[in-house]
Amino acid sequence: MFIEELPNISQFKWRNISLLYWLYQIATNELNKYFNAHKYRPHSLCRIQEEYGIDITDRSSAETESIKLQDELDKHQDFMKINACIRKMDIKYGEVISLRFFENKSINEIAIILNKKEGTIKSLLSRGVEKLKENIKS
Question: What are the angstrom distances between the C-alpha of 84 and each of 74, 92, 103, 124?
Answer without folding.
Answer: 15, 15, 17, 19
